[in-house]
Amino acid sequence: MQAIGSAPGKIILLGEHFVVRGVPAISLSINLRAWAEVKLVDVNPNNGVSVVLSDLFGETYKCVNGGWGTPYCRVLDTLGVMRGVEAKIFSRIPPEAGLGSSTATSLALAGAACVLCKGSLDIELVMKASLEADRIFHGKPSGVDTMTSLLGGFILFRSIKNVEKIGEGAPDLRIIVVDTGIPKKTSKAVMKVLSLYERRKHIMDRVYEAAKALVEDAVNAIKHRDYVTLGELMLLNQGLLNTIGVSFPEAENIIATAMNTGALGAKITGAGLGGSVIVLAEGNKINNIVSSIKEKHRIRNYYVVSPDPQGLVVKTEKDSKRRLA
Ligand code: MEV
Question: Which of 102, 154, 249, 270 would suit a FRET pair with 182, their CA atoms being 20 to 30 Å apart?
Fold first, then answer.
């Protein structure tokens, strides 16, 4: 018996970091996905201990001691299947780029293992397992990564219990993701911002207010497919991210190049201090923007992505047999 789970990567359009202290954020699942193939094994070479093979890091993880060493084993521990499972993880989402690769892989694994071992997709349990995995990366995940990858589409995230889908996707929307190659530093960035908040609460409250107002305006812009306004709001949001100290020089330079070549807006996405820049652009400007970024900056890679309306999907052998029949 086996099940395959797949989940999309994500970008945060507006509101990262501010969301950790309860400000809403807008995120979007993208058409780069991760997969987990999960099998039940009676006897395996590891004395029955569950194992997870990851093509992402070329590693094999053996699940012992509550799985605290690795997010994937935390997922299996939360599902209560630390024995008898063999899983393989594949991903097209670049790691360490702020595109939600670890959350998408954990979620794909949680979904497939849940269907296989519990007989159905228990969404609450899958969410819990993915959040447990995120906690290994930084102690205080807001849940925006998990909910975006789980549900797919445009997400207005207020809290784990208050998530609204504000659109399935937008076929006419393209976003350039520029992977700077500088690994993002989620835990360090989150702690840095929280500590700044504690030290400068009276100033930071005003910055958080501005972040909230940006998100409110962006909801309308997205609903009306007004990408000019959305671009302007993304750039304003970048200003706030710079203010709270999570932008980085390479990102600022790439953003300047993109804006000088006709982008509608650009900003870092996710935790920052490394990771990716996202650029919102009209279709006819994309080639120009990409060429000038490649010419002027040393980057690891770039992707032109569109929204993926589908969140977590799990298929079992039964499903494929049904399709063949
Ligand atoms: C990370 O993708 C987004 C942050 O806001 C952290 C979080 O919300 O958990 C930086």
Answer: 154
